[in-house]
Amino acid sequence: MPTFSFIATDQNGSVVNGARVAGSRQELIARLRSESMVVTAVTEEAGTEESPQFARWRIFFENLTRGRIRQIDLMVVTRQLAAMLKAGVSLTDALHTIAHSVEQPRLHNILLQVRTDVQRGRSLSEALRRHPAAFDNLFISIIHAGETSGSLAQNVTRLSEYLERRESFRQKLKSATAYPKFVVVFFTILSAGIFLFIIPRFKQIFEDFGAKLPWLTQRMMDISMFVRGNIILLIFGGIGLIVLLVSMRNSERGSRLYDQLVLKIPFFGMLFLHGAVARLAMTLSTLLHNGIPLTDALATASGTLGNSVLEEGVRNTRRDVMKGYGLAESFSRVAEFPRLLPRMVRVGEESGTLSGMLQDVANYYDQEVDHALGRIAVVIEPILIIGMGALVLVTVLAIYLPIFGLSKAMRGGG
Fold first, then answer.
1. H/E segment holding residue 256
2. 323 near 314, Cβ under 8 Å?
3. Other CB atoms within 10 Å distance of the CB of residue 264
4. DSSP readout, 203-251?
5. For strand 15-21 and strand 38-44, is the pairing parallel, antiparallel, or unpaired?
6. pLDDT tens digits along 7-62
7. Given this model, what pLDDT does residue 408 score?
8. How far apart are the first and last CA of the chain?
9. What angle do CA 324, 329, 332 make, to 5 degrees?
10. Please, what is the angle between helix 354-413 and helix 152-193, to 10°?
């Protein structure tokens, strides 16, 4: 949306200069009038609107070159801001103090820019919106709702609690998958060591003896020679594959294809779906509790799931709600969502406790994810260990079968 500079007079007759984001001049004028201001001038600031795909690439390269802003740092900043606003510290002073307590250089600079924009007359939500790499739509929506309702400190506190729950979920997922990741990396290094260093040494020994190699040994030797002879090509091919996957992930069609495949992966697809539903319910509950209309809450939540297929489902849900359908009925039309979701939402709609029921939905699916993560150690780890053992067994057989043959031939020849 465009940014407009304005000059207005407040209730006390003081002249107010500022800049705000709005859909049109009329929307900005109506908003200022609702704040008891008399608008004397509105000017649209020059700027170019970037496409969503270009924005994704820009944020990707900024994160790559300047360092990604960690969610845990953002969580700490939000908690500090809530505490200082509750204590009566002014917004600009709070931002100044917090910015100088942040160690991450990029987040430090962003907070200082936000403080400068607030000093120049922008609202906090408008200042945050200028930094999409740090603050997502949900973050900005809750802040904007707090500014509109005059309860900024309370909304920042709820936002802090939401970010803490989201970070706790992320840490549980990271902890549960740490050991499988370690096994996969170790398995890859072990395989590379076998094919690059161990098998070639035995190949030279067998050639010196002129032994006829068994089929298994010959295949292992062929693979080893191919890897050693094309190591540079394989490295650049791997890099090219990574670049291709990143490009696909940042394109609309590629992202949708990738996200469809993710949801169909056995076990992990259901794990991801339940995690996304928990995040969706938690987001909607938080936004509705902060007084944001359901259609606006759905629009915000559609960008927080990390899966384009599910996000499209939420956008379709929003369109159905705008047509007059209930939220439960609209959810039931999305094939990807579990059937329990609309049933629980319907209970919340009928009892008038939709926000509370959505929180119950989030807690339920959060527990489902916890149980699924607990099963990872039981199911995935043995599979990885068996796979690693199978590779070692095949390598040992490939190496020792010719040795047994040579030993037998030497005994027979003697």
1. helix 252-264
2. no
3. 9
4. HHHHHHHTPPPPHHHHHHHHHHHHHHHTHHHHHHHHHHHHHHHHHHHTS
5. unpaired
6. 777 777 676 777 776 767 777 777 788 777 877 777 766 544 444 555 555 555 66
7. 63
8. 90
9. 140
10. 10
Residue with the two structure tokens 């970037």? 50
H/E element holding 201?
helix 199-209
Specify the pLDDT at position 220. Answer: 81
Chain centre to alpha carbon of residue 329: 28
215-229 helix and 199-209 helix, angle to the nearest 10 degrees = 120
Cβ neighbours for 127, distance < 8 A, ≥ 6 positions apart: 113, 114, 117, 118
| Rg of the chain taking only CA atoms, in angstroms | 29
Query: If we measure between CA atoms, which residue out of 304, 306, 301, 293 comes closest to residue 317?
Result: 301
Q: What is the pLDDT of residue 329?
A: 92
Read off φ and ψ for residue 363, nearest 5 degrees: -65, -40
User: Within 13 Å and on the Cβ side, how many CA atoms surround 284?
Assistant: 30
How far apart (Å, rounded) are the C-alpha atoms in residues 300 and 294?
10
**CA distances to 49, 58, 61, 251 from 52, in Å:** 9, 10, 14, 10
Q: Which residue has the tokens 């031939």?
A: 409
Q: What is the pLDDT at residue 146? A: 78
- Helix locations, 37-194, DSSP H: 52-66, 71-86, 91-99, 105-119, 124-129, 137-149, 152-193
| Tokens matching residue 340 | 């329990």
User: 252-264 vs 231-249: helix axis angle to the nearest 10?
Assistant: 100
Place of tokens 């250089």: 105
C-alpha angle 354/81/157, rounded to 5°?
20
Say if residues 221 and 213 touch (Cβ distance below 8 Å). yes
For 343, the token pair is: 């049933």
What residue type is assigned to position 168 of the chain?
Answer: S
Give the predicted TM-score (pTM) of the model. 0.63
Sign of CA pseudo-dihedral 239, 243, 249, 252: negative
pLDDT at position 396: 80
Residues of the chain with pLDDT under 50: 47-51, 414
